[in-house]
DNA sequence: ATAGGGTTAG
């Protein structure tokens, strides 16, 4: 410290130390140094160092948010930088917080103490609005942006656009977009993603076609959006178009979505191809891709490959475990599924509500009533997971399949929430299975009154009558459907992959090229099933 | 500083 003003030296040195800090231990040492040297510093410098320390604590990999919070709480008058740090820290948390640390409370406190927010404050406030789905809070903050003249900032505007479009307010999003003096690709992508998230897929597609500039995120967003929106076939088409386009290269995100598209389609060859493509591109499968691969191989009936990918994983989170569990469940391997539940617990991963949906549906498909009841209990008592409607639907499905109608109805009555159409639908399906006309009529009547335009419930009711040979009933349902103008708009269809080509086939007919091959395949399957001792339930077919 | 990925059910 010789020859240089101590004040200057101290601040610079400590600031450098913070930047290079590698652990919390080091950080605490620096913290105490800042405190002990504070008499030799100006207040401003002291505050500067503490706020840098806070920033490091909040965002560095070796930092600690808990320590950041305690640091922040020790500040008497946090500066703008510290407020921004805290708002950013909590902007990605979905739960509505009761503490003073919610971004909105921090923002209010900041305004109350006379500090003016800046262009770095707003993006994170809008992010918080997006995550919590609070467009009205967002609108209020939007007015502050205008008052402060920050409505020309690209970052601020883009996060506003994203918020509005994700909340389904694409009109306002477009207004913001049109008012911008300079837009960039993020502005357009934000609108596009909003459309996709709100299920306006055609709107998104038409915008995608009109876009002059498209980056990887644009392509990935549309591919993912189509898969999640239940149009995986189109997403594969866009993926192939992406490969042909010169200006972008598929990345890990693309691969994850495409693998996911393949599992929806049962497109094993395409899925395998993407798996190979990933390696050819020199990309390594990360946890997300591996999980998608497990799901894909599982859904395509290739359990061995699913297990292989699973065993190769160095790290597994709940989603990975759950994907493997449901692959076992889909293959009727209830024991393996439950075995994995124990294994995941031993390895320190807690199952979540999705894991239990997978387990319960495994029990339902295998009609293992005792396992199902025990599983439901286990979930509540041991894992402290409150059952959601989905879980009740699985259990109702199981009890119904087992013909335990009274218990199923009792369970529905005991539900803490309103049973939805899936819960009743599960029981209705069981009525069809067991020929329970009386209960079936009651449930179908109720479901039809809820959603008179949905053809599905009429069809099941008609099946129930047909199975009981009550053809008057069948006629009544058909007449009702005619009167109400209800048609089965989209015929049920299945997908089959032949030589890497995906074909749709349905009762209404299929492409000639694959028809013969499908017939041939079905014949073989029927013969093999007979050998295995399977007796088809032809009562269902009328 | 802002935008994109994986698990369940029907």
From TrEMBL:
Q: Which GO terms describe its biological process?
A: RNA modification
Q: Which GO terms describe its molecular function?
A: RNA binding
Alphabetical keyword list = Repeat
Q: Where are the PPR repeats?
A: 79-117, 184-218, 286-316, 317-351
**PANTHER family named in the record:** PENTATRICOPEPTIDE REPEAT-CONTAINING PROTEIN
Which PROSITE patterns does this one have? PPR
Q: What is the lineage of its organism?
A: Eukaryota, Viridiplantae, Streptophyta, Embryophyta, Tracheophyta
Q: Which InterPro entries match?
A: E_motif (IPR046848), PPR_At4g14850-like_plant (IPR046960), PPR_rpt (IPR002885), TPR-like_helical_dom_sf (IPR011990)
Q: Can you name this protein?
A: Pentatricopeptide repeat-containing protein
